[in-house]
Amino acid sequence: MTHQLSSPDFHGEEKSEQLTSIGQIKPELYRLRQGDQGDGKQGDTCGKISFLLRYAFNTEQLVVKILKALDLPAKDANGFSDPYVKIYLLPDRKKKFQTKVHRKTLNPVFNETFQFGVPLAELHSRKLHFSIYDFDRFSRHDLIGQVVVDNLLDFSEGTGEKPVWRNIVEGTAEKADLGELNFSLCYLPTAGRLTITIIKATNLKAMDLTGFSDPYVKASLVCEGRRLKKRKTSIKKNTLNPTYNEALVFDIPNENIENVSLIIAVMDYDCIGHNEVIGMCRMGSDADGPGREHWTAMLANPRKPIEHWHQLVEVDSVTAWSVCVCVSEHVKINQCVLCVIVYRQCPLYKPNPC
C-alpha cells in the first residue's frame, strides 16, 4: 500500500460541554450579607468568591455550587478579565471541574453546581481548592488567585443554603495542566506496520469560552527532522474527556523503525478559524522519559499492544524536538511546529521543507 507523503499542519486546529446543574436555589440567597464574608482581611486585591456546600449522605457526594465572585483584579488591557474557576478536592488533582468563562467582567455570576464522590469517613482529610483564572485565547491563562477550604466535615451538618464567602488570595501559578492521553503502540516487524490505538484523553485544557473543547488527535511520523506522514482521529465535540478507540496505522519497514519517531498532538477543532494545539507528546528512541520508555517497550514486545498514559506538554516543549536540516548545507533550522515563518529565515528555504 502506497501512502502519499504529507506535511502535517500543526497550526492551531476550536468548542463546549454542558456543566451539570443540580437543582436551583433562591436568588435572594445570592446577596452579600453582613457577616457572610468568611475569613480573611478586608480589601483583598484579588477579590472574593461565594459558594454553597452540602453533603448528600445517601449518595456520599459533596455538592459544591459556585455562585459568583466580586472585585476581581483586571488582567486584560481593557480593564477587565475573562474569569473562570477550576475546582479540585485535594489531595486528588486528577478529577477537576471547571466553570464556563465569563467575558469582560470583574464580578462574574457562575451559578454552576458540581459533585465530588467522597465517603463521609474521608471528608475530614479532604480540602476543597478553588483556582480562579483569566482566560486567554492565545496564551497561557493567568492565575488570578485561589481559595482553600478545609474542615469540610463541618459543612456535612448544614443544609447548604447559606452562601459561604472567602477572600481570594494570590497563589503560585501551576504548571500548565493540559491533560493526559491514553494510547497503545503495536509494531508488526514482518508486515512493517505500526499501529497507534488512541483510546481516550482526560482533563484536557479548555480552549473555548464555554469551558470545553472539540478535541481530536493527530499523529505525525518523523524521520531525521522531516515529517513524512500524518494520521488523525475523528473529532469529539464539547468535551474535555473524549473517548476514541481509533487505530492510526503507519507502514514502516523493519529496517527503518529505529530511525523514526512520532509526534502526537491533541488538537482543538475550529470550524471557522485555525485549529489549535492543546498539548503534545513524543514517542521514539530519542524521546525523553515516558516517550522513550513506551517506544522501547513496544520494540521489545513485537505484535503486542503496549498501552500507556502520557502527560501532554506545551508546544514550546516540543519545538526542541523538531529540528529541520537544510537539504544542501545541513544547516539546522529552529523549526517551530506552529509557524512556517521560521523556515523562511533560512536562505535555502523551500516550500514544505519538512
Automatic annotation (TrEMBL):
It is a single-pass membrane protein. It is found in: Cytoplasmic vesicle, Secretory vesicle membrane. It holds the Pfam family C2. One of its GO terms (cellular component) is transport vesicle membrane. SUPFAM superfamilies: C2 domain (Calcium/lipid-binding domain, CaLB). Coiled coil: none annotated. One of its GO terms (biological process) is calcium-ion regulated exocytosis. Its main location: membrane. It comes from the Eukaryota. InterPro entries: C2_dom, C2_domain_sf, Synaptotagmin. Residues 45-166, 177-310 form the C2 domain. Signal peptide: none annotated. GO terms for molecular function: calcium ion binding; calcium-dependent phospholipid binding; clathrin binding; phosphatidylserine binding; SNARE binding. Belongs to the synaptotagmin family. This is Synaptotagmin-C-like. It comes from Sinocyclocheilus rhinocerous.
